Amino acid sequence: MSLLQFERVSYQYDSEDYNIIDELSFSVKPGAFHAIIGVSKRKKSTIFRLINGLLTPKVGEIQVGGRTIAGQKNYCGYMPQKDMLFPWRTVGENLALPLEIKGGFSKAERREMVRSALADVGLFGCEEKRPEELSGGMRQRAAFARTMLTGSELLLLDEPFSALDFLTRISMQEWLLMQHQKHKKTILFITHDVEEAIFLSDSVLAVTSTPSRTLSEIKVPAEHPRTRECLTRPEMVMLREKLIDMLRKQVMS
Question: Do 13 and 135 belong to one domain?
Answer without folding.
Answer: no
